[in-house]
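Here comes my example:
=====
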Amino acid sequence: MSGMQGKTILYTGGAGGLGLETTMHFLDAGARVVVIDRDEAKMAALAEAASAHHAERLLIRDFDLADLSGLKKELGDIQASFGEFNVVINNAAIYPSKPFHEFTVEEHQAVQRVNVDAAIVCVQAALPSMRKNQWGRIINITSITFYGGWALLAPYVQSKGALVGLARAWAREYGVDGITANAVSGQKGNLVSLHDRSSKADEHTLAFAVGEIGLAPEILTDTGLLVAAGREDVIA
């Protein structure tokens, strides 16, 4: 997609699963991609996949997103050397599983720190350049667990709900600056919801059942590319 040519994307959790496939699509479309991940095997696989044609436009960093102050510095250093972020995709998440009553408050907070607070740091790092350029795209990867409820994953479900709320708040606040914010559910399941608001349009909610086939990686890729390239009219 020509609209991605020269754009720099910050993509947390972008090395494995849907991350690898969508990262490769963004690279094929001409974007530069900064991937922050923790899984060494997945990062190696992504580096290998990109080595033939896209190595110079892919930057992979092994970084613990729970280190919020360190993350802020890391992102500043990356932008200084690799380019300002035009697109932020908040995808990284941890999801410990056990009954709700067994989670401590500290365990809840640890999940929010990685899944939500790190996303906030990433967006705050990108906003100055997005506002200066009057163009930016924020994509929060959410989950069907928020829309339908899920047992044994309360902190994770809580975090995904927070990302939906933040996408709506950011879209409302920064639409005037040419910045859109969307929440996209990327897992297989029964429902996918996408929310968008800009200064020129009312809130749009796109919801469609995908039934037994689930959500294929190319669907998330196409949606993400359309949003990131500014083609809101296609999905509104």
